[in-house]
Amino acid sequence: MARKQPFLIAALVVLALIVFGQVVGHQFVSYDDAQFVFENDHVRGGLTGEGIHWAFTSAQIGYYPLTWLSHMLDVQLFGMNAGGHLATALLLHILSTLALFFALRQLTNAPIRSAFVAALFAIHPMHVESVAWVAERKDTLSTFFGMLALLAYAFRREKKWMVAAALVASLLSKQMLITLPFVLLLLDWWPRRRLNAAAVKEKAPLFVLTVIGAIVAVIGQRNLNAVQTSEALPFGDRLANAAVAYVKYLGKMFWPTDMAVIYPFTPVSTAAMLGALALLAAITAIAWSLRKRAPYLLVGWLWYLGTLVPVIGLVQIGAQSMADRYTYFPYIGLFIAVVWALHDLMPKPAIAYAGAAAVALLAFLAWQQVRVWQSTTTLFEHAIAVTGQNPVAEYSLGQELQTTDPDRAIPHLRRVIEIADAALRANPEAGVPVTYTQAHVGIGTALLTKARGAKTQAEQLALINAARTEYEAALKLDPNAEHAAGNLKIADQMKAALAPQASSPTPSTTAATQPPVVTDKKTQLEAFLNAGTAESQQGHHEHAIEQFQKAVSLAPESVEAHVYLALGFAQAGRSSEAATQLLEAKRIDANAANEFVTKAVQLQPAPDNLDRLIAQLQAQR
């Protein structure tokens, strides 16, 4: 059997690479990736003394010091290339898979069954979210250290400090595995068959660590304002959702379809809750009754139930009813129970073929699910398609499209408002969701984007006034609504620019747009850009292009001038020329060009905004 081990290891690695290798070509997504990486100034600076100090002393958005350090290291190595960050996540996933295999093989002396369990962990579609989402580095990293704790416990039971050190590292990455000492006790009962008072006593230091980890987790989530209050979500509703979520997770292990980045919280009926509790109780009773003949059933089932407790929703974090990533470690218990049960029940040739077929099918489904994570647009289009009424997904997709495709964005943002209105009518005490307010802001931004490309002054004015109405609605809901006041000022400036100009024989010779004669190159450049902007706001796109072309002629090395000219060409419908100017800006300074495009077009910050805009313009040729 030892001769088969290299083959098993190679097979596990190849499986993971086949399924997840495509992530190296993916983008960051506009859902938590910003606060964890590309908008986080501490992370963007790479590994610095100041950044390391912040990682260990700040719990503003959760206490994940080792996760922060891993993100900083990725920035140091790959910059803002999302593919590099995701390659690190894939490496951690592969290492966790191998650690799980070695630990189970050592504990059970069953290498083939251990390899099947590791393979299921490696390629199960419900695990895609943890690997293909940059912001979930905390999940892959904490689980990797958890696997090291299992490995140390399997090989070096007498060196308990190794287990404790790995657990500390896991908790410093994310406080998910606070139930790991219970898992080790389960393994003491089976397969080790040494569960006694001494085994419990030796876990005492680990329990102390997990209590500290639990306290840190609650503090971090409260700082993030992610913990739902009892007024917003009563405990009875949480309990009902938790029972149903256990069953849904169980179902998705065997039938992994309709997976989404966000599952909206929906009311659970009493009948559904009682049915779920009855099913969970029945499975527990069956596993208990078979504890002597098939102890792995009880171990696997309790592993699943116990390790999901921190994230099952009794302490509700965020607005989701469940999350695929929460199964990353808990499913291992179910995998163990299923693989060992089938081994005992089925003939050996049959189980080999069935196992290979199951792994192949799951790998194919996982490969398809990885494709969903290519970009923000593909991610949330899929979420809306499989979950139905989903305000977070609708808002996220609308926000992504508001400046690049406003006509597609507005219906999604309107849908957010409709859902929020209905929810507030049903439960006025729930409070106004942030997405409700920001949906108004997003619609306003989309309308201003349309106004910039409108062909007539009357159409521009109508769109600007409609945008103002949206910003005012947002400020009425929340006087401190992010971006609302600032964008309202922009709308007013655009409206003022449409006012008739006195004594202006031709638009290109107005005092407002005619650049003054100056000798300083920088001042003259700014004058040309300001003049072109004023012409553009009045709908005089060809005159705006003339001013921007003068700016490029004056300063051909200016990224800003090329971007302004590109936007001028785009407004005039000259997509090919616009793309050419953006490519020139990218050649001069890609980072500066991306940053300037992001601000000029009011995009959600992302390292690939420039490339996406170029691709969009080239597609319009």
Could you explain how this protein is built, in words?
The protein has three domains: 2-377, no CATH class; 389-497, Serine Threonine Protein Phosphatase 5, Tetratricopeptide repeat; 514-619, Tetratricopeptide repeat domain (Serine Threonine Protein Phosphatase 5, Tetratricopeptide repeat, Alpha Horseshoe), CATH 1.25.40. The chain is mainly α and 621 residues long. It starts with a helix and ends with a helix. It has helices spanning 5-20, 33-38, 41-44, 49-57, 65-78, 82-108, 111-123, 128-132, 137-155, 160-173, 180-189, 197-202, 204-223, 235-254, 270-289, 295-308, 331-345, 348-372, 376-387, 391-401, 406-426, 434-452, 457-477, 484-497, 521-537, 541-554, 559-571, 575-588, 590-600, 609-619. α19 (376-387) packs antiparallel against α20 (391-401). It contains 30 helices and no strands. 46% of the residues are buried.
